[in-house]
Amino acid sequence: MAGYDEVYQRSIRQPEEFWAQAARAVEWDVPPPRAMSEHGWFAGGRLNTCHNAVDRHVHAGRGDQAALVYDSPVTGTVRTLTYADLLDRVARTAGLLRDLGVGAGDTVVIYMPMVPEAVVAMLACARLGAVHSVVFGGFAAAELAVRIDHARPKVVLSASCGIEPSRLVAYKPLLDEALERASHRPSACVILQRPQRPAELTPGRDLDWDDAVRGAAPAACVSVAATDPLYVLYTSGTTGAPKGVVRDNGGHAVALRWSMENVYGAAPGEVFWAASDVGWVVGHSYIVYGPLLAGCTTVLYEGKPVGTPDPGAFWRVVAQHGVRTLFTAPTAIRAIKKEDPSGSYAKKYDLSGLRYLFLAGERLDPDTYHWASDLLGIPVIDHWWQTETGWPVAANCVGIEPLPVKPGSPTKPVPGYDVRVLDTNGDEVPPGVEGAVTVRLPLPPGTLPTLYRDHDRFVSAYLSRYPGHYLTGDGGYLDADGYLFVMGRTDDVINVAGHRLSTGAVEEVLASHPDVAECAVIGVADELKGQLPMGFVVLKAGCGRDPAEVERELAALVRERIGPVAAFRRSVVVPRLPKTRSGKILRGTMRDIAAGRPYTAPSTIEDPAALAEIAETIRET
Ligand code: COA
Ligand code: AMP
């Protein structure tokens, strides 16, 4: 069997042949004439992603195998859908969408909790060649509105409520408010009524999900071009306006199918559980598409790592459903460790079937790595990727050749990704020296071909800084053995409990407060969540407000505008912010101070005393 080095080199030297071979694992309506062209990966090929994720497995005799296990401790439900069940539901839901006028190329927004209907909805869109855009349930109405206006969905699919351990989240009023704020009008909303809190439907606009699907005839798969979009997933950029990451059909199916076997070492029929949310890229790739394309059983878990009901929740699910591969974020492991430091809950369950624990979404700190490795006695695999790439950029590819682990490193670049670390001039830095982590073009299949309805921003955000390279936005270094170490974002993006957040978006909200003159938001280290956003706020002269009161108002404002997921609770009123002489706030320097990195004041600084003051405040907080 070829080892990692050989496979990797082949992928970089002969990407055409490499990916053409991988493409054979996908069923095409029209096989692509070649893998790569100026029109994108697999241009000229035609396929349907839903067919590859569902129908083909039924045709191949997997109809009775579990496709999806829904495990919801918050509702006390465990339910299994076989591939045949899934096909039936997806085809009828696609029929409903078709009856509502949704066709290939139309967009559909999905704003749903972690219920099987969310997965069915995504696949139903894929079946029709429609483009889904899933919005995470923890976002507020205003954020949903921004996405609705940008995606311009023909139909919105939602549910009456989501269930958080501490409260019911009524989604329907959030959707109503979002539609009031948005200028775009979908022609219909289909609402899944959950018994925990049914919603009042708006006559003439809303349909009851179950009734509507019951009356719909099944729809067949629509063949689409490999380069047609499968979905748009909005993610945080450096400003308040989210970026619509586009995923194509062909490259995505090929890359995800390949990654399941080669990165994750997963085989058809195995149980694969990504404990994330369908609203994030991890959910798209490894709750929905990856496992289903590979004929695995995926677990859809509506619960938390702790509190539903205890820190043994993950171990219970692993044992009960025979999970072989678990994928989650380090923050989830930290949450378990905090409540059960001795790992006593893990010992109550039979975890002998668990082969790998994969972690991503934020840096895996060595403490968490060692704790999980010691507890489980299986490989714990840090891997690094982003919404934009859709699948791992650096990982220990256990399906090719497990490499020795270096704690703190997601190991080496995954085949397909030519990772280069560059200095500010665009020159490669020597091993061990930190710089901007980039990927030399071409990016492999499955990565973003553009930003939805904003190709200029795609070029300016990712391709302009270092011509010929994709800018990841992360800083880090390669060591002498070629292991990558990712040290954190070099821009205004932070990671809060594995959720990606733009500090620029939080700043826009703070700046809208009538008493705020100016502000800066940075991520500060948090033991549990990795990072938390923290605001530094200068009040308008003479406003006479009590700082503590304004700080409370700001926390409420961010929760209302961005949503609870921002976890924005802390801000401090300061007399001034450090700036350059041209008036630019020294956010980068503030970030360095907060991260405990060495920093130097730029020569263009307006007043060094202001920087010293803020450094003191950051250290105190
Ligand atoms: N719908 C509505 N609200 C949601 C939500 C959803 N789908 N998901 C989270 N929220 C809310 C939470 O209720 C919480 O609200 P609160 O301020 O009223 O308590 C807030 O958003 C923050 O949620 P979360 O980040 O989940 O923090 P938490 O304190 O509830 O739990 C962890 C902390 C570590 C247990 C949790 O973040 C976790 O399980 N993370 C796993 C990471 C993950 O899934 N990452 C995805 C990429 S792999
Ligand atoms: P998202 O697009 O939400 O998946 O967030 C992507 C960002 O999360 C990356 O750019 C990194 O900053 C961070 N990230 C994800 N995985 C890792 C990891 N394994 N190690 C370090 N940072 C990570």
TrEMBL record:
Q: Name one Pfam family in it.
A: AMP-binding
What are the GO MF terms of this UniProt record?
propionate-CoA ligase activity
Output the PROSITE patterns linked to this UniProt entry. AMP_BINDING
- Annotated SUPFAM superfamilies: Acetyl-CoA synthetase-like
* AMP-binding enzyme C-terminal domain ranges (all copies): 506-584
Q: Which residues form the Acetyl-coenzyme A synthetase N-terminal domain?
A: 4-53
Q: Which InterPro entries match?
A: ACAS_N (IPR032387), AMP-bd_C (IPR025110), AMP-bd_C_sf (IPR045851), AMP-binding_CS (IPR020845), AMP-dep_synth/lig_dom (IPR000873), ANL_N_sf (IPR042099)
Task: From the Swiss-Prot or TrEMBL record, give the protein name.
Answer: Propionyl-CoA synthetase
